[in-house]
Design brief:
With 115 residues, this protein is mostly helical. Helix content is 56%, strand content 0%. The chain is built from six helices and no strands. It has helices spanning 9-24, 29-35, 40-48, 55-64, 70-82, 101-109. The protein is elongated. It starts with 8 loop residues before the first helix and ends in a 6-residue tail after the last helix.
Length: 115
């Protein structure tokens, strides 16, 4: 389960990406589940961000989906590693309202800013 017992922004981003790649490969959740020796329920929960993905599972799924871009593999595997990381702002609940936690997570994960 992601940190705090609910889906994190990172786990939802990873899950959405995995779902897009699976659908682009025209595969059902059953095929993905069999490929990682899991269940349809596990794939569904991975894609919704309800459970954390292991980097090895992400790698296997991307290979099944035909994703060959190394940068995509590295980025999504890192997202899997970081999906349970606790954000610094959680230690200061009085400083930021809960509604802003997702925005702060996105900003924290950003690699560059465009204007």
């Amino acid at each position: 389960m992601p940190a705090g017992g609910r889906p994190t922004v990172r786990s939802r981003r990873l899950g959405a990406a995995l779902r897009r790649y699976r659908e682009a490969a025209k595969l059902e959740q059953q095929s993905a589940a069999e490929h990682i020796a899991g269940s349809i329920t596990k794939i569904s929960r991975l894609e919704s961000g309800q459970v954390s993905a292991r980097p090895g599972d992400v790698r296997l799924l991307l290979e099944l989906y035909g994703v060959t871009d190394r940068e995509t593999h590295l980025r999504l595997e890192q997202l899997a590693r970081d999906s349970n990381k606790r954000g610094w702002w959680l230690d200061y609940p009085w400083a930021a309202k809960q509604e802003y936690a997702d925005v702060i997570t996105l900003e924290s994960d950003a690699t560059y800013i465009r204007t």
